[in-house]
Amino acid sequence: MTAPHSTTMKQLGLGLNLSTKKTRKAKFLDEMERVVPWSALVEIVEPHCPRAKTGRPPFAVETMLRIHYLQQWFCLSDPAMEEALHDTPLFREFAKIGEGLSRLPDETTILRFRHLLERHNLAPDMLRLVNDILGAKGLLLRTGTVVDATLIAAPSSTKNADGQRDPDMKQTKKGNQWYFGMKAHIGVDAQSGLVHTVAGTAANVNDLNMAGALLHGKEEAAFGDAGYQGVHKRPEAQGPTWHVAMRRGLRRKLNPFIEPDFVAERAEKMKASIRAKVEHPFRVVKQQFGFTKVRYRGLAKNTAQLITLFALSNLWMARRDLMGGRG
Residue 57: what pLDDT? Predict the structure, then answer.
């Protein structure tokens, strides 16, 4: 006679196949596997990779690029990425590291590959490639641009090897709170919300000073929040027609029962609905990819990471169209 306990366990186990369960992480990587243009990205990186004449053969460029992107998607440092490759079969499979390999990339190998990308400034080329693909599929229209910036915090502690804070990072006040770090300035397509331009500055740089650098030059209209008031007077921002939000204090004074004020309020709501597109890539980078603090010292390294993150956010935001397009 079967014990009641074992019968219950058998009943609970009926129909369960744990090996076929697809986690959210696996689904995410499966989608990115399909939408990232791996071969074209490898062509950008490969000419800059050193050729090993002696010693152990280097890891494939595509493998290192996949590991680099895993770091961005899951917010992993170089040592954490090395450990994740040892601990997580899913990551090894995504990086195309076969079971027959006698070694895995260590943190030094991962760091050197990142330094190679930074040294040759390859992140902007990758963003450009991604956007060319999105434009060819009609997903990046380029007739209008929305500009905005967000603060990225940096460690303010001086308990480090140099005994001082990062000199490239600065302090700024927003509202009643002080922040130390940098700013990520982006220009996005007003129709799709996809990022076409990225710039990194210290936190104390005024958004207005970067407005012209966020335009691609072919837009007919540009949109910004109230921090961009006066942008139409800047010579470097000439070209498109600017639609900038009214300052909050002035908007509160609008009387909805007076026709000019009613029309002005409608216009502000319309501009706000377009400006909302710029929040989508910020949300993906900060919440989906978990990037809320700088990891490296210096603006150049952190800006390169930001450009990579926004290139990947474009692919993530457009993934359904890209996967549909590939049948």
Answer: 75
Closest to 307 measured CA to CA, from 93, 20, 44, 8: 44
Beta strands 177-189 and 144-153: pairing type? antiparallel
Q: Is residue 135 part of a domain?
A: no
- Residue 49 exposure: Cα atoms within 13 Å on the Cβ side: 19
Same domain, 108 and 221: no
Domain that holds residue 296: 142-314
Distance CA 210, CA 213 (A): 5
Q: Is 102 helix (H, G, I), strand (E, B) or coil?
A: coil
Beta bridge partners of 223: 146, 243
For the stretch 176-191, pLDDT in tens is 899 999 999 999 999 9
What is the value of pTM for the model shown? 0.88
37 and 155, same structural domain? no
Question: Are both 181 and 90 inside the same structural domain?
Answer: no
Are 115 and 193 members of one domain?
no
Q: Average pLDDT, stretch 95-100?
A: 80
**Separation of alpha carbons 294 and 304, rounded Å:** 11
Distance between CA atoms of residues 152 and 37, nearest Å: 28
Say which amino acid occupies 142: R
Per-residue pLDDT reduced to its tens digit, 208-246 = 999 999 999 899 999 999 999 999 899 999 999 999 999
Does 168 reside within a domain? yes
Helices 61-74 and 38-45 pack at an angle, to 10 degrees, of 110
| 161 and 299 together in one domain | yes
The beta strands (E) that lie in 78-224 are given as 144-153, 170-174, 177-189, 195-202, 221-224
Helices 123-136 and 38-45, packing angle to 10 deg: 150
> Domain count of the chain?
2
Quote the longest CA-to-CA distance of the chain: 89
172 & 295 share domain:
yes
